[in-house]
Amino acid sequence: MLDGVTTVRSLLPALTDLLLPSACGGCGAAADGWCPACADAFDGPVVARPVRAGPPVLAAGRYRGPLRRAVLGFKERGRRDLGPALARLLVPVVAEVLPPAPDGPVWLVGAPSRRSSARARGGDHVARLCRELAARLGAAGLDARASPVLALHGRVRDSVGLDPDQRAANLDGAVRVARSGLPDPGHAGHILLVDDVVTTGATLDVCCEALRRNGLSVHAAVVLCDATGRRSPYRTVPGRARPAHPGGP
Ligand SMILES: O=P(O)(O)OC[C@H]1O[C@H](OP(=O)(O)OP(=O)(O)O)[C@H](O)[C@@H]1O
């Protein structure tokens, strides 16, 4: 049962959607999605090279500038209105990882967040991104299905301060796979993992492994931001417990 504070907090993003006019996700200028200057600043798709082995990862851009601000807004600051604009950035990324005429449906499987994080954010932002992306791919003629089948056990702790191996250990065996909403093993089609940011690759690696244990193989991962190349992914912002980016510990 939700208490009053939790209920109000989870409603805030929806209320913000109703009350605030559209603003560019990158700079806040009046715009629907991106202003022309921010739209020009995107540098993707880029191949991400996380330290953890896992599926091939292609990102819409590097974790900086307007894209970084938009992802933080979408994830942490209630800017759920940015979902369509962010999903649009992933359409060419998906096109790049798929064969020219994919056989069967494309299953978009979002990387799961901890339940407490999703609650505090007013919902699972990656699941929302998958739905938006499926709609846009569908409009482009692709049979794409958002498939929210992964979840984390409650025992996973915040990854703040953890190095790559510790992040992987924290997630090891913690990903649950719901069978409904997934293709049968040996299916036609392609499974794509979807996430907002890749840093060490631990999250994508354990998600891939969980699906593999269920007989399902991941074709590739598509993410909004590649934070793997940052000089110090473990840098923290003075005065904040959280890292300088959401993928860092
Ligand atoms: O490549 P990795 O090193 O695994 O890091 C990337 C992960 O970290 C972030 O999750 P976050 O720490 O915000 O987790 P939460 O959503 O459960 O709070 C981000 O959303 C990715 O899922």
TrEMBL record:
Domain Phosphoribosyltransferase per the UniProt entry, residue ranges: 190-231
Descriptive protein name: Putative amidophosphoribosyltransferase
A Pfam family it matches: Pribosyltran
Record family assignment: Belongs to the ComF/GntX family.
UniProt organism field: Pseudonocardia endophytica
Keyword terms: Glycosyltransferase, Transferase
GO molecular function, one term: glycosyltransferase activity
Top-rank taxon: Bacteria
Family annotation (InterPro entries): ComF/GntX_DNA_util-trans, PRTase-like, PRTase_dom
